[in-house]
Specification:
Order of helices and strands: EEHHHEEHEEEEHHEEEEHHEEE
Bound molecules: zinc ion
Shape: globular
Oligomer: single chain
Largest sheet: 7 strands, mixed
Strand content: 25-35%
CATH architecture: 4-Layer Sandwich
Number of strands: 15
Structural class: alpha/beta
Strand order of the largest sheet: 1-2-3-4-5-8-9
CATH class: Alpha Beta
Radius of gyration: 18 Å
CATH superfamily: Ribonuclease Z/Hydroxyacylglutathione hydrolase-like
Distance between the termini: 10 Å
Length: about 290
Amino acid sequence: MTVRGIGKASIAKVEELCGPGFKAGRMFPRFNQEAFDAQKHWMVSDHVEPGSDRLVGSVHTWIVRTPHHTILIDTCLGNHKTRSAPNWNNLNTPFLDRLRDAGVAPESVDLVMCTHLHVDHVGWNTKLENGRWVPTFPNARYLFARKEYAHWEDERRQKDAQSVNGGSFDDSVLPVVEAKKAVFIDTDHQPDSLLTIEEAPGHTPGSIVIRLSDAGREAVFSGDIMHHPVQVYYPEWSSQFCWDQDMSARSRRKVLEHCAEHHSLLCPAHFPGANAGYIHRAGDAFRIEWDRP
Ligand SMILES: [Zn+2]
């Protein structure tokens, strides 16, 4: 397992799933075949399935350990959950065993943070116990961005459970609130002396970016501000799952500019392969230099 250091903190990744998903042309409403083909030489086969243009994506959790806390950022899909997408339905993966192998027992997690509340970022917030959804990490506080939570709570008032983030608001978010483990945070909240939070709306209304900084080094956990590394090269390509295409593109560019300026390690939620990298300016856009420790 790859463990990266940022000052006194460490970062590791636990994967739930990885494989080819949507075709690029379906994923990005602003897709352009010629532009996509120009990047294929480095994307195939780690990031694009050979012959199909299907985008390879990973679903993973970032473990951050600081001198004070063990923190999980984004909690994947979870087990035994009814989902409409066949490859996400009723999963039974050894995710918790992998987490333990990484040295993290569920009881040892202090903070769970979700960059946003989509289905593939909240799943392991809860587990099934005696027919009920209960918090998977019994000693953790779960930090939800207030604006993000309010948006989905409002959606839920108007729609049935399955229509709100594939049912995950009801089985992976509400049970945490009911167990009184949720803390609603604004972006001025500092959960650890090494962590800061920034608003990055567009993919969802209340998406956040989490920064880990120590000893002059920084890592940026960007959630779904980008789904795929081709978006580093074409930052205007928002995904079909973005709530607001233009706002999402503005947030993406802002995160990329920040990473390029500060030599920050970009740690997105779905990049496979090396999973993280450094961003450099390239004309009007950017390029990624993979971090392969
Ligand atoms: Zn996602």
